[in-house]
Amino acid sequence: MEKGPQGRRRGRGARERILGAAQRLFREQGINRTGMDQLCAAAQVSKHTVYQHFAGKDELVAEYLRRFDPDVLPGVFDRTDRTPRERLLAAFEVPASTPLCPYIGAAVELHDPHHPASECARDYKKAIAARLAETAREAGATDPEQLGEQLALLIDGASARTRVLDSDCFPAAAAIAAVLIDNAIPASSAQPGDDRGIAIAQ
Amino acid sequence: MEKGPQGRRRGRGARERILGAAQRLFREQGINRTGMDQLCAAAQVSKHTVYQHFAGKDELVAEYLRRFDPDVLPGVFDRTDRTPRERLLAAFEVPASTPLCPYIGAAVELHDPHHPASECARDYKKAIAARLAETAREAGATDPEQLGEQLALLIDGASARTRVLDSDCFPAAAAIAAVLIDNAIPASSAQPGDDRGIAIAQ
DNA sequence: CGTTATGTGTACCGACCTGTTTGGTTAACG
DNA sequence: CGTTAACCAAACAGGTCGGTACACATAACG
After folding, report:
1. pLDDT tens for each residue of B34-49
2. Cα separation of A139 and A77, whole Å?
3. Could you tell me where the beta strands, DSSP code E, fall in chain B?
4. Counting beta carbons within 10 angstroms of the beta carbon of residue B107, is it exposed (0 to 12), middle (13 to 18) or buried (19 or more)?
5. Burial bucket for residue A137 (CB in 10 Å: 0-12, 13-18, 19+)
6. Which residue's CA is nearest to the C1' of nucleotide C21?
7. How far is CA A6 from CA A2, A9, A14, A41, B90, in A?
8. Is A138 in a helix, a strand, or coil?
9. What's the gap in Å between the CA of A52 and the closest CA on chain B?
10. Rounded distance, CA A47 to CA A69, Å?
11. What Å distances lie between residue B85 and B21, B181, B201, CA to CA?
12. Cβ(B159)–Cβ(B104) under 8 Å?
């Protein structure tokens, strides 16, 4: 317990602490390499409590992935001060040394397409592509769905390749994205003085 | 070997059988989910023999990855009956439901950039990009290194995304590749009657 | 106050993992 | 033939895994 003077009772927010620790540990070291004991220690929670909140590790993993939904690419789609084209390109402005996309990681590590977390990953990926397509439509793309799918593929490629090569691949992906976007939007839509590609081409 | 009437003797080729079983099992179910016992059974080899040929599982995994080198994208780079442009696009003609690129899988599963297999994966990815760049140079690209890196990124993206979505993403990647290639090659190099993109655009 | 959730710590279970050891068998070769 | 190197089967060792059981402590609320 080690409580005493300044009552360090962990309190009622066990579930939140569990999910917080899960987010940190799963992203840092992967899912399979993170044991429940370690997770309990990091969350300052007893094992009993974890299994009281989650049916098992699989459930916890699925919930950990669902938690990403609310903050889907924060500041990318909802920035009204940027043009649609700028918003599309903003999806590639990830801080350097961002860990592998957790959905790709889960799909690879769990290796079961029917795992609840894998299904969650599919849903998320489709949602991202849909939002990209939506923005692509705003930008005036002739085939928004195709452009959205293409940009989503670029993001996944940059994420996976960054992991394998251990060096940031998002600038290269952004350069491709710029080409695709300009190729998909009829010339009339291009803003005058558009600085397309500057400082992005790798 | 497997001689004799009811040839129960597995023979001398133990190492090859081990690597063969490793290739099949690691690709089918992943590295972490494949135990040494299962691998021994599949290779019809005793555990003792495995550890006589390989210092440990890590060594075996690394050797399993090195085995891919000789047949790097067979029939892609060495087909002289195709134009350079066709060879570049051929890299995206993978049979449907091809499992995840083993190098990406290893890098994600092992999760340690210093693991011998991870270093092997990096080397391989760089080699592929280099060969693509080489072919891009033949095709007359203005910046072959950039195009090679871009195409490599597309391949990785298609592989990873195919895994997550559980549906073939290589056609979409090929469509992007066609755009990038044509964008990177000065107009003069384009062959007359070039059927660019036909039957590839998703 | 007493009750009821909710939490704690610890020990434990069976399963599986990588890796080792033992003792015996078989094939190949001089 | 005899020697040797490769192999096999099976038990074992030590560790970690996900998950459970038990007895106890605390917080919130009536």
Report:
1. 999 999 999 999 999 9
2. 12
3. none
4. buried
5. middle
6. B48
7. 10, 9, 19, 20, 67
8. helix
9. 27
10. 27
11. 36, 8, 16
12. yes
Amino acid B14: pLDDT: 84
The owner of tokens 């998909």 is A184
Q: Residue B12, CB, less than 7 Å from strand D? A: yes
> Is the pTM of the predicted complex or chain greater than 0.85?
yes
For A141-187, the pLDDT digits (tens) are: 999 999 999 999 999 999 999 999 999 999 999 999 999 999 999 87
Q: Cβ within 7 Å of strand D: which of A 24-83?
A: 32-38, 46-48, 51, 56-58
The dihedrals phi and psi of B35, each to the nearest 5 degrees, come to -80, 160
**pLDDT tens digits for B131-176?**
999 999 999 999 999 999 999 999 999 999 999 999 999 999 999 9
Q: Which residues of A touch B164 (CB under 8 A)?
A: 103-104, 107, 118, 121-122, 125, 156
Distance CA A174, CA A92 (A): 6
Distance CA A177, CA A194 (A): 15
- Taken in order A201, A125, A113, B158, is the CA torsion positive or negative? negative
Q: Compute the nearest-CA separation of A46 from chain B (Å).
A: 27
Q: Where are the beta strands (DSSP E) in chain A?
A: none
Distance CA(B11)–CA(B16), nearest Å, equals 11
3-state secondary structure of B1: coil
Contact residues, chain B, for A180 at CB < 8 Å: 176, 179
* pLDDT surpassing 60 at residue B78: yes
Residue nearest to nucleotide C5 (CA to C1'): A12
Report the residue from A104, A153, A165 with minimal CB separation from B172.
A153
Q: How confident is the model at residue B80 (pLDDT cuts 50, 70, 90)?
A: confident
Neighbours of B47 (CB within 10 A): 12
